[in-house]
Amino acid sequence: MGDLTEPSSIEVLAEWKQQVEEIIEGSPIPMILCANKLDLLEEMEEQGHTDWEHLQTQEGLEEFALANGFIGAVMTSAKFDKNIIPMMASLTRQMLIKELTESANVGDSVAEGGYDVERDRGESFNLQAKGKQQQQKKKDGCC
Questions:
Q1: Predicted local confidence at residue 106, as pLDDT
Q2: Which of 1, 9, 76, 107 is most exposed, with minimal Cβ within 10 Å?
Q3: What's residue 58's pLDDT?
Q4: Alpha-carbon span 139 to 118, nearest angstrom
Q5: Measured between alpha carbons, how far is 92 from 114 in angstroms, rounded to an integer?
Q6: Could you tell me if residue 80 is left (phi over 0), alpha (psi between -120 and 50 degrees) or otherwise beta?
Q7: How far is CA 115 from the centre of its chain?
Q8: Is the pLDDT of residue 22 over 50?
Q9: Cα angle, residue 96 at apex, residues 135 and 18 outer, rounded to 5°
Q10: Phi, psi of 116 (to 5 degrees)
């Protein structure tokens, strides 16, 4: 997470991402470029500030994210909970897709239908190994 009021903090994220990728084995983990303190930029804009650096714009963040292998870029405000939940939902979704895809590629229980996926009306879902729910019920003394 970088600070929109300090664009240099966003540039450092590319180095941090590279360090993480050097440590992990296998394919890269999905990472979203998150630029926080959107509320302060909005305050500055209300006060007449119009001279934004490239990394203080959504377009600039998206270009930087693409150039550095992030799966996306989002401006957030932790103070006002702006774009936090959609960003985390998107990241979680991409991590699950990666995990399920990799598991299916190696032929384990996902490829064999070893997971139950229960979808809600929205984007949320419950993922668990088949049989686990039934085992849990028996363990708890039900059914």
A1: 56
A2: 107
A3: 94
A4: 22
A5: 20
A6: alpha
A7: 22
A8: yes
A9: 135
A10: -100, 135
Degrees (nearest 5) of the Cα angle 94, 97, 102? 125
Q: Which residue has the higher pLDDT, 106 or 36?
A: 36
Task: Indicate the residue type of 43.
Answer: E
- Write down the residue that tokens 């929205």 correspond to: 122
Q: What is the Cα–Cα distance from 2 to 141, expressed in whole angstroms?
A: 49
CA distance 44 to 65: 24
What domains can you pick out in the chain, each with its CATH number?
2-111 (3.40.50.300), 113-143 (no CATH)
Segment 121-139 mean pLDDT: 44
pTM, two decimal places: 0.68
Tokens 């990728």 correspond to what residue?
A: 21
27 pLDDT above the threshold of 60: yes
The predicted structure's pLDDT at residue 98: 85
From the list 83, 81, 75, 62, the residue with the least C-alpha distance to 5 is 75
Say which amino acid occupies 9.
S
